[in-house]
Write a structure and sequence with these properties.
Layout (H helix, E strand, L loop, with lengths): L1 H21 L13 E3 L9 E14 L5 E16 L5 E16 L5 E3 L8 E6 L5 E6 L6 E2 L17 E3 L3 E9 L4 E2 L3 E16 L2 E20 L2 E17 L6 E16 L5 E17 L13 H4 L7
Length: 310
Amino acid sequence: MKKNIVIKLLVLLFSGYIACAQAPKPDSVTVPLSDTLCFKYNFKQGDTLDYIGISFDSLQIDFGDNIKKHRIERIIIACDSVLPNGHFLLSHSLIEILAKETQGDKKPIKREESQWLDRVVKIELDSLGRRYRIFLDDSTEGAVSPGGAFGPFILIEYGEACRLLNESWIVKSDLGLAENGIPIPLVTQTSFFRAKERKDTLGYKCNSGEYIFTGQGSFKAITGKDTMNLHSIMNGFGKFENHPKRGFPIHYFATIEQKLKINMSGDVEKPGKHFVRADYTLRRFVPGTDKQMKRTLPNAKEQKTKNRWK
């Protein structure tokens, strides 16, 4: 009887040893797919994004009174085509603006017009947000967006496709911000990104992240006989919640602090400061298809309604 008990114990111990020997090592644990977030664009031809942007600016030039602006903008981004190399050709246009400006004791000014209104630029973008070619509607007619040459822009360069939750990465970018002005403002910046937890945003289970960045920008504009050279040293912070399949922002918040140097036609250089915070929210998404189809940027006049922000 005792012999049978000993044999059974040996069998149990041996079985346990085999199970332990076949168990996976602690360092071979598989990371759940739910902890991996991907940040890449996946446009289809005909995709049309309709954004509302709400921004607050504070601008000071040569130690004068601050110019404070509250802006509401409507921006359309459309995918004109998906190129054979997988890049996207995107159209970008500001189609409506409503702004209020104050400066010192002066009476507030309301604006519904801008030189940048209805201007169309086209940007060739890859899935990680890197820019390749830019097409302008009229390169001879200079203008700047209401947010300035170095203001926040929706088409972020992510530099990496997929990251684990709370993982960080660094992206160095040389950008031509055609959506901010003509001639094209040039920016060199370094961004530190971090993948954050998924969020429910406007009915989507979004991949979210945030970043901080520092950079420099330059812009040169010629108007008649006058030439303006603008240089900016800037830093900023942003948060974004992206469409789970298409990769574009459902909501995007950005704040930027700029120290400016301004030179007009050889005059003495003047200092300036520009602080801006902006919230962009997707108002409407009209999906395209995988089939070849022709869809142009929505006509700005057709988009305008009596209730501008309904």
